[in-house]
Design a protein that fits this description.
Order of helices and strands: EEHEEHH
Shape: elongated
Structural class: alpha+beta
Helix content: 40-55%
Largest sheet: 4 strands, antiparallel
CATH topology of the largest domain: Alpha-Beta Plaits
CATH class of the largest domain: Alpha Beta
Number of strands: 4
Distance between the termini: 37 Å
């Protein structure tokens, strides 16, 4: 089974030897940049001039593998839980169990 990959990078539209990683939050971009510095990966940083004001970091494709690993680490650092509220999580769990129980009861009693 293939692993799910978060992909926030693309080939540079002019220089095909570079990949551009983009981040919508400055904190994420700063963390990714610090990981690149720590692992001594050369990069270039800029800000997109579009309405989204994305933070762009360009990496040469010879460092693509390590950059993708560091990008995944950055995503894991700032990922939030799907259901962070304990009450809501328990409500969804109980509701799911009730629906499964009703489905099984309907199957066996019908």
């Amino acid at each position: 089974m293939a692993d799910f990959q978060y992909k926030n990078f693309e080939d540079h539209h002019i220089q095909r030897n570079f990949s551009v990683f983009y981040f919508y939050a400055k904190d994420n971009a700063d963390y990714f940049e610090s990981l690149l510095i720590e692992h001594e990966v050369p990069y270039e940083r800029g800000i997109a001039k579009d309405m989204l004001r994305r933070h762009l970091i360009g990496i040469h494709k010879s460092h693509q593998e390590i950059a993708e690993r560091l990008n995944n680490e950055t995503g894991n650092m700032y990922r939030k839980p799907f259901l962070s509220d304990d009450v809501m999580r328990n409500f969804i769990l109980i509701l799911t169990l009730i629906v499964v129980f009703l489905a099984l009861a309907g199957y066996f009693l019908a």
